[in-house]
Design goal:
- The protein is α+β, with helices and mostly antiparallel strands and about 300 residues long.
- Helix content is about 20%, strand content about 35%.
- The protein contains eight helices and 14 strands.
- Strands 5-6-3-2-1-4-7 form a seven-stranded mixed β-sheet. Strands 8-10-11-13-12 form a five-stranded mixed barrel.
- A hairpin with a 2-residue loop joins strand 9 and strand 10.
- The longest helix has 12 residues.
Length: about 300
């Protein structure tokens, strides 16, 4: 007999006995600042078969029960959450509520080939270049082909130096946005930029945020600093990426001169703003404190 599952859109504070069939599309640990080998909190984003998402947390009191049972990209049946308001200033998703794991919860991993692997909620480039619509407190996913890039640069704040690089991404409709990569993401993208000009470089970024100036600039700095795993993919073998490549069109020209160009005026504006101190880069401690304080409201 088939089980009846609730949808994330149905979740309300009126009860705890929700029975969800969901995929963990993101999972990361908030580390203890004094003992980095320990986690103070585990955060998850779960998604149902309709594609709706909700934020969930596993607090330290119950972490030993669940930390070995739940993994990123896994599919689970989860029952009996504590439901509370989503007061996060940085919106991981638009749901007004969030879920907390409790001792009463039941979690079981399952297999269902029919359950979608479409884990991204891509934001159209046209939306991102609209200064009115872009919300700097909203996190979102994007996909695009790299068509240009600048040089690796250094940014110094508080005696600590980080590397960053500006790139230009283009979608299947030939809309462009500028992107800033930081730290390890720079190291990951560089080998692909030196590859064959006939092989498109497709970049997927999950849960990033926009920074407005002149045109819209996308920055993944929050994901980099927090160390959220699997926030950045290059040419991944995933259904939504295959669909994106097919929409580029088999006859689309990949031009070496076009690809090797430096990024547009927008990218240089990022460098100028960083040099001028107009963009504040939060260190890991500040961001962890911010998230934990928001979660305690």
């Amino acid at each position: 007999m088939a089980q009846n599952y609730n949808y994330i859109s149905e979740i309300a504070m009126s009860k705890m006995s929700w029975n969800l069939k969901v995929r963990v599309v993101r999972l990361w640990h908030i580390l203890d600042r004094k003992k980095p080998e320990n986690s103070n909190l585990i955060k998850l984003i779960i998604q149902d078969e309709k594609g709706d998402r909700i934020h969930a947390t596993i607090e330290r009191a119950v972490m030993r029960i669940f930390k070995t049972k739940i993994h990123g990209m896994g599919l689970y049946v989860m029952k009996n959450f504590v439901v509370g308001p989503n007061n996060l200033e940085i919106k991981i998703n638009k749901h007004k509520l969030k879920l907390t794991f409790s001792h009463r919860m039941s979690v079981g991993e399952i297999s269902d080939p029919q359950f979608s692997l479409n884990i991204f909620n891509f934001k159209p480039f046209q939306h991102l270049t609209n200064q009115v619509e872009v919300d700097e407190n909203e996190l979102f996913d994007i996909i695009g082909e790299v068509i240009g890039h600048g040089n690796v640069k250094l940014y110094n704040q508080g005696g600590k130096t980080s590397t960053f690089m500006n790139l230009e991404l283009e979608d299947h409709e030939r809309n462009n946005i500028s992107v800033t990569f930081w730290g390890k993401f720079v190291d990951e993208i560089l080998p692909h930029l030196d590859g064959s000009p006939n092989q498109p470089v497709i970049v997927v970024m999950q849960l990033i945020k926009a920074h407005k100036f002149q045109g819209t600039q996308i920055t993944n700095i929050l994901c980099v600093i927090l160390g959220i795993p699997r926030s950045f993919w290059i040419n991944p073998d995933l259904p939504q990426v295959a669909k994106f490549i097919s929409r580029l069109g088999s006859g689309r020209e990949v031009n070496l001169e076009r690809f090797s160009q430096t990024t547009s005026q927008h990218s240089y504006s990022v460098s100028e703003e960083l040099a001028a101190g107009n963009v504040k880069v939060k260190i890991i401690g500040e961001l962890i404190d911010f998230w934990e304080q928001r979660d305690n409201y």
